[in-house]
Amino acid sequence: NPASVALRSSAIPHGSYAMPSATRSRSIPKLTLVSSNIPKKLKTPKSL
C-alpha cells in the first residue's frame, strides 16, 4: 500500500530525530561526569 509506505517513511524520520536527541541528552551527563572525574584522577596522583 503506497499510503502505508508513506506513513512509515514519514514516521521513521521523526523516530530517528527523536532517538539521537534522547541519546544526546543521555550522553551529555556522562560526558560531564567523565570530564569532572578526569581532573580528580589527575589530581590524586599529584597529591600522592
Q: Indicate the radius of gyration in whole angstroms.
A: 21 Å
SSE topology string? H
What are the low-pLDDT stretches, counting only 5+ consecutive residues below 50?
Answer: none
Q: What distance separates the N and C termini?
A: 69 Å
Structural class category:
mainly alpha
Give an account of the 3D structure:
The protein has one helix at 2-47. It is mainly α. The chain has one domain (1-48). The longest helix has 46 residues, at 2-47. It is rod-shaped. The mean pLDDT is 58.
What topology does this entry show?
Blueprint: H1 2-47
List key phrases describing it:
1 helix; 96% helix; mainly alpha; rod-shaped; 48 residues
What is shown here, in short?
Residues 1-30 are annotated as: Disordered. This protein has one helix at 2-47. With 48 residues, it is an all-alpha fold.
